[in-house]
Amino acid sequence: MKIEHKIACFFALFGTVYFLESIGGFYMTSAIVYIEKQFKIPSRLSGTMVSASDFAYIPVVVFTSYFGGQGNRARWIGGGCLLIAVADMLISSSSFLFPRVDDHLNSSSIPKALVYEVDR
May I ask which residue range the UniProt record assigns to the signal sequence (predicted)? Predict the structure, then answer.
């Protein structure tokens, strides 16, 4: 296989993985509000969970860099991609495993609340 073909394959795969990882990050950011409402957890705890997932990347990168440099780097990167895929599936599992709670809006109370806010 020519080196140009290997480089093109690497960048195509890297772009795809990076795109999917970005989608997972955006999903986590947008789903955190839904998770707070569904499980009635405070924002402080949900912020701690998001921060913990961000801080978990640092040791994983250090671990992968060290052992990837000593062995087959492509396999270590592939294993890291699979680990990220499993983590993203676990993050999204709350949408599939737990029933959705619909908040019902009492539309008759909206005009009263608006009048109250305007009169204040």
Answer: none
